[in-house]
């Protein structure tokens, strides 16, 4: 029931399939180099069909993408490894699309989508986590450039990224939400230093990024000066919407691993653990059905606020089930495979050890919005409960307690 | 406890039923809600529960006649609307939301399923039109996989003798559907409430809005509906569908408990602020909303599988009763607590919801019972019996 | 280790016993009328030995009372039915002792202690529950009297009480904590109307009290005008300190009832309920040991803030265990003995039905300070966490949102 | 599972042990805490755990020599301080509070109890002075009422062969106390760590501050300490007292987790306010404080009954492990969560507490295991076995 692209009648599924066949005819996946194929796909408007014509899309409803993806998958075409470039696809691209100039869109979107250029996100700071708007990284105007100095944290892929989306404070004398500006930053520029940030699993998925007098041309600003907070909302909104695609099978998450251990090791079972497992299984099934409900809503063009519930429930379930796994395993859980510092490119909850899962799951209720912030959002935006008295909205940023 | 032909971990169940509400269902909901708003506001309910007529039979007739709620899942040929249990579930939500004292569960669900199973079109039609109501004569706490009840015996001459305690919706009923044991095993009989030998004794019930009664039969004349496996299946089917629909009622209870509490906390001031602005309460209500969001998906899935005859219905209903029962109790307990003193008084509706939710949690098998049944269905067995 | 009554050496336990024997010698409990005996006991300073001489006490440490009570109990002496007059003993008396004039002390304390005059407490209002200081009952000066108008609620024993302790607003133009004054109100005065307040159990333990132009002589004021909030702190502090006396045996609370049902009804048992019962039993034992720990601390003269933890845990346990009882009973729990409105003089959790316990326990986390307020108190006064921004402390009461 | 000679519901246990800390204990605590503050600050601990010497043997010698922590419960005649397990529990709290990597549990508790039981004064004296340390060669997860281990066999010539996995505090140990099965049944042996045939393999452990090792014995010479019932009782007594003391360690962990979190939230600002002023967090921390208050009473009672030889010790220890294990895990999980991102990093000590708490919850019998044992001790049996 989408109302997008009403001007011209959208191509039918058959027409879309024809476009895919045309692409495949001119670029046989079996013989075309991967990057070249992806570029051609982008140019054919089949990258993200809901993007405008000329920017990798056809101005179609989002759901039409399923037709394209299915056809291409059937033909054995390479994909753009979306998990590796998730920040670019999910956060940078929608923001560039909405706030970027046409030059910026033309420059950034194609290599972003093909994965030739990896993106990362320079938002969080040691002193500004949940309260992102309190950020203190400064950007000072100097001719046609901005000079950026500060420290960012929790930056995944920073060590592989070519570009970053960045929010920085350009005016400390106004209230905190008003003095922020949004930039695209070249991660190869002088003054950018990336250090791995080791986490309690022993690994370092993330980085700290130190910015010391990094020059950013004003042409890499996204949106107006001082409008960075509003621009960032687009980025963050897209971070949380990640439900969709296929229905998830029962026991697909880590509950499946716990259930398998239970089935294969009768000697570990106790009545108390049985009760706990059954409760967790039911909770996992409830979470799965909620995601399915949400998927059906999105497919029907009725997005709802239940996505935050899904993230929230996911974090709690992962934590509870992984805690259960260790209790079930007993002695074996006292052993941890390896604490050696490593640099994984993505999180593999299902492939890791139970101990890894237990520890890594602790991050699920922190990353991408803490469970506490999600509860605030649900209470205020969904339930309409009144906000708390705020004292930080009208005071100049520089006068706030830190 | 039943055993599962196919286990859950073979990953066969992926998409399954439509979980959303259709436009028709939205309209149905609006009609039911409007009628209940006019005739079933909670002060009316509270005033009624201590009278001699705890059920509002007039309201039930009206719901049946004006909105057709009694026969939604009954085929048109048998006098119903030819819709499905999915639509009935929407009615269950609304009746739960209003803690309406009407014989919906007993007549339009439990009895109707049983009669459809045994093919008694005449009586089904009467129930569907709301001109008569029936009750299934089992204790309200009976679980779908319970043993066939043995409290009533068939005696020579097709008369029934015995007793059944804690029967729901029987006080206003015209007909009792009575599971009984005859010489040939299980049987299901229809007994006229007005017949000789039928005695109902009202019970002071935890749930004020669904009054129970004890049934005593002394050589009461019965009409055989089914016997043997057919009787057993009819009873089990009725209780199973009932458990699915009950989850929707519980969802409605929980939704209304949350909505009422949110409204109260938005307007009530303490310490110079709306109470609803205090973060600890906000987080608890957010948790509740997350739970209700999940309960909705779970309840819709359960009734969807039942409506579709999906083989996953056994798991789905057990999951629904495991999950939604406790959620509804939590929601109504929070309703009482977060209303402070006023929620503890008789004159505030919170207790009607609390009592209904707690009784519903025991009805048609407790959450604990359904989790135990689930263990067999999904191949998560308990401790080996050797110890 | 108390430092009370250091001036004169306190009488030894033997001397105390002698005093008791003297009382018993002149007032044989077997032949003396109950009230007469209690009056004599009061006059002998053996009522509450930590009260001053002349007011029923001997200025001794609180613990010395145990000696007296044990001797009197052994001799079969009547007691003053402390549960019936709990509000007088626990709340009114300490406040009168601390803030009352000597005339007030002489007038009120003796019949209060003997139970000849029952007291009740007029604090809570429909619009001022947890935020007691928001109360709106007005007291207006008129010559030597005050004229009181307003509505109070949750008043136990109001229908039997001769006197009430009352807080009322005497100045609406100052911030809410500053305009309150504390009075003793005659419950038989014209304009006092008591109505039973029915609760969700069907019973009415409590009352609503309507005050319509009730005249209170200024001589019945306790403390200075406008000092009522501070005076009320003494009352409320004493409400929460009620731990002491004997050690509580294991399974003495409602867990004992649940355990008995479990033992006597094997047919009701399920593995899931077993796990729940064991957890509740452990929690009940933890609560019992915590009370024992607190009792030992008080006996050692080291009172601590753990009393609020005990009340809090008590409420939660009662609610959880009574909920468990109903689930365990199944069909039987669907039946409730009787909804008829009754007027009990005290709560009998252990003697009532499981359904009654379940419903009545809901009040445990509301009455005498909600669990939410207790958590605030623990967080701020015990853990030293910062208070929330307050907007109601400096605004005149009349300008507060209501 | 052991059966109870006297059941709990006979209401015999009322007052019981002193639950408070004595002045002597307060002084002991201050001494231990001061020494740990100087030599066991968490950056020191964190730096050590990834080295080849995860245990701080120097610190342990110092604690033994300067404060006498290793022999508090050992009679003076055997080289100890002649105090009781009550005082040892205070040390356990402080070591838990510091997540100190010292062989306290293995040497000063498990081994010392076992050696006192079998009457090996010489070795007890060495352990008490801290000049030597010992470890009890059982998996750390072993519960007090577990079956006697069968992984090591006594072979002719009093030599031992077999393997034991996941042994705590054995890496720095001089002596291993090895339960073994001989021809005459259970036996307990002392084995010199340096003896031929003894191999230790360090294990990468969940708890970084209590590194485990696997022990392999190949015809290692052993010295018989006890056999038969005496060996069995010595082992069970060691594990039982160990479980009581572990509750005190877990209490210390929880207290420190709460204290650190409160300190952080008092100073950290978000939204222009100290984060600790947000009510939802305050309520969670208040709940935690209530739990810790209860855990303290429970742990003191457990160690009190053990110290007094009170017949209620079985119930008391099972209650303590049921309650305090989960509380300590919760406290450290809240510590990680409420520190936000920084609590998730390797460079913050929160993870050291989380890992110790989770490992402790599995050590010496899980909470689940202890609850199951408790059921027998307090006459709350499970479902009758007929089904």
UniProtKB/TrEMBL annotation, chains A, C:
Domain Acyl-CoA dehydrogenase/oxidase N-terminal per the UniProt entry, residue ranges: 16-116
Coiled-coil residues: none
Entries under InterPro entries matching the protein: Acyl-CoA_Oxase/DH_mid-dom, Acyl-CoA_Oxase/DH_mid-dom_sf, AcylCo_DH-like_C, AcylCo_DH/oxidase_C, AcylCoA_DH/ox_N, AcylCoA_DH/ox_N_sf, AcylCoA_DH/oxidase_NM_dom_sf, Mycobact_Acyl-CoA_DH
Entry keywords, A to Z: FAD, Flavoprotein, Oxidoreductase
Domain of life: Bacteria
SUPFAM superfamilies attached to this UniProt entry: Acyl-CoA dehydrogenase C-terminal domain-like, Acyl-CoA dehydrogenase NM domain-like
Pfam family membership, one: Acyl-CoA_dh_N
Cofactor names: FAD
Acyl-CoA dehydrogenase/oxidase C-terminal domain location: 226-383
Gene Ontology MF annotations: flavin adenine dinucleotide binding; oxidoreductase activity, acting on the CH-CH group of donors
Gene3D superfamilies: Acyl-CoA dehydrogenase/oxidase, N-terminal domain, Butyryl-CoA Dehydrogenase, subunit A, domain 2, Butyryl-CoA Dehydrogenase, subunit A, domain 3
One GO location term (cellular component): plasma membrane
Domain Acyl-CoA oxidase/dehydrogenase middle: 120-212
Family of this protein: Belongs to the acyl-CoA dehydrogenase family.
Name of the protein this chain belongs to: Acyl-CoA dehydrogenase
TrEMBL record, chains B, D:
Keyword list, A-Z: FAD, Flavoprotein, Oxidoreductase
Transcription regulation in keyword set: no
Known cofactor(s): FAD
GO function terms (MF aspect): acyl-CoA dehydrogenase activity; flavin adenine dinucleotide binding
Residue ranges annotated for the Acyl-CoA dehydrogenase/oxidase N-terminal domain, each copy included: 23-119
Cross-referenced InterPro entries: Acyl-CoA_Oxase/DH_mid-dom_sf, AcylCo_DH-like_C, AcylCo_DH/oxidase_C, AcylCoA_DH/ox_N, AcylCoA_DH/ox_N_sf, AcylCoA_DH/oxidase_NM_dom_sf
Pfam family, one: Acyl-CoA_dh_1
PANTHER family per the UniProt record, alphabetical: ACYL-COA DEHYDROGENASE (PTHR43884), ACYL-COA DEHYDROGENASE FADE28 (PTHR43884:SF20)
The name this protein goes by in its record: Acyl-CoA dehydrogenase
């Amino acid at each position: 029931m989408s109302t997008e692209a009403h001007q011209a009648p959208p191509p039918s599924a058959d027409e879309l399939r024809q476009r895919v066949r045309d692409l495949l005819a001119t670029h046989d996946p079996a013989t075309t180099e991967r990057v070249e194929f992806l570029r051609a796909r982008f140019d054919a408007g089949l990258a993200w069909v809901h993007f405008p014509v000329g920017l990798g899309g056809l101005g179609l409803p989002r759901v039409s993408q399923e037709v394209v993806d299915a056809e291409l998958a059937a033909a054995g075409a390479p994909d753009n490894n979306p998990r590796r470039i998730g920040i670019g696809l999910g956060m940078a691209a929608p923001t560039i699309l909405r706030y970027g100039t046409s030059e910026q869109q033309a420059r950034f979107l194609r290599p972003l989508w093909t994965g030739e250029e990896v993106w990362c996100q320079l938002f969080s700071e040691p002193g500004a986590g949940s309260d992102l708007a309190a950020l203190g990284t400064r950007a000072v105007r100097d001719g046609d450039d901005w000079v950026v100095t500060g420290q960012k944290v929790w930056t995944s892929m920073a060590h592989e990224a070519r570009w970053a989306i960045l929010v920085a404070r350009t005016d400390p004398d106004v209230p905190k939400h008003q003095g922020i500006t949004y930039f695209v930053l070249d991660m190869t520029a002088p003054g950018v230093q990336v250090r791995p940030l080791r986490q309690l699993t022993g690994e370092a998925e993330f980085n700290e990024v130190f910015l010391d007098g990094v020059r950013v041309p004003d042409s890499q600003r996204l949106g107006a000066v001082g409008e960075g907070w509003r621009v960032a909302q687009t980025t963050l909104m897209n971070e949380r919407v990640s439900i969709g695609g296929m229905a998830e099978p029962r026991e697909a998450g880590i509950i499946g691993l716990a259930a398998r251990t239970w089935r294969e090791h009768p000697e570990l079972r106790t009545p108390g653990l049985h009760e706990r497992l059954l409760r967790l299984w039911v909770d996992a099934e409830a979470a799965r059905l909620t995601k399915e409900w949400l998927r059906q809503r999105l497919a029907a063009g009725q997005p709802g606020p239940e996505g935050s519930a899904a993230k929230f429930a996911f974090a709690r379930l992962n934590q509870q089930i992984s805690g259960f796994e260790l209790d079930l395993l007993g002695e074996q859980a006292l052993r941890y495979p390896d604490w050696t510092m490593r640099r994984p490119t993505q999180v593999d909850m299902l492939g890791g050890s139970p101990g890894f899962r237990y520890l890594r799951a602790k991050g699920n209720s922190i990353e991408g919005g803490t469970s506490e912030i999600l509860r605030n959002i649900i209470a205020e935006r969904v339930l309409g409960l009144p906000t708390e008295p705020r004292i930080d909205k009208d005071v100049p940023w520089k006068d706030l307690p830190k | 406890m039943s055993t599962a032909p196919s286990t859950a971990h073979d990953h066969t169940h992926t998409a399954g039923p439509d979980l959303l509400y259709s436009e028709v269902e939205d309209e149905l909901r609006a009609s039911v809600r409007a009628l209940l708003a006019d005739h079933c506001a909670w002060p009316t309910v509270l005033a009624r529960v201590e009278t001699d007529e705890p059920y509002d039979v007039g309201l039930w007739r009206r719901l049946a006649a004006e909105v057709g709620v009694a026969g939604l899942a009954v085929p048109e040929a048998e006098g119903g609307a030819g819709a499905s249990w999915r639509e009935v579930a929407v009615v269950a939500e609304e009746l739960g939301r209003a803690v309406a004292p009407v014989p919906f569960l007993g007549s339009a669900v439990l009895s109707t399923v049983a009669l459809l199973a045994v093919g008694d079109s005449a009586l089904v039609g009467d129930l569907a039109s709301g001109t008569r109501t029936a009750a299934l004569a089992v204790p309200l706490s009976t679980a779908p996989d319970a043993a066939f009840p043995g409290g009533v015996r068939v005696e020579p001459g097709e008369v029934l003798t015995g007793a059944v305690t804690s029967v729901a919706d029987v006080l206003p009923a015209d007909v009792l559907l009575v599971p009984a044991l005859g010489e040939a095993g299980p049987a299901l009989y229809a007994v006229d409430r007005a017949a000789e030998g039928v005695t109902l004794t009202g019970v002071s019930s935890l749930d004020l809005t669904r009054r129970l009664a004890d049934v005593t039969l002394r050589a009461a004349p019965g009409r055989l509906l089914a016997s043997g496996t057919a009787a057993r299946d009819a009873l089990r089917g009725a209780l199973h569908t009932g458990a699915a629909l009950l989850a929707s009622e519980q969802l409605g209870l929980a939704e209304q408990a949350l909505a009422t509490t949110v409204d109260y906390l938005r307007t009530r001031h303490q310490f110079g602020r709306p109470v609803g602005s205090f973060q600890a309460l906000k987080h608890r209500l957010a948790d509740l909303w997350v739970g209700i969001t999940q309960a909705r998906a779970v309840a819709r899935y359960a009734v969807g599988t039942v409506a579709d005859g999906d083989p996953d219905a056994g798991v789905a209903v057990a999951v629904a009763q495991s999950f939604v029962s406790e959620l509804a109790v939590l929601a109504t307990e929070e309703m009482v607590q977060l209303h402070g003193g006023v929620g503890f008084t008789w004159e505030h509706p919170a207790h009607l919801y609390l009592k209904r939710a707690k009784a519903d949690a025991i009805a048609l098998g407790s959450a604990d019972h359904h989790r135990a049944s689930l263990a067999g269905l999904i191949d998560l067995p308990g401790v080996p019996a050797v110890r």
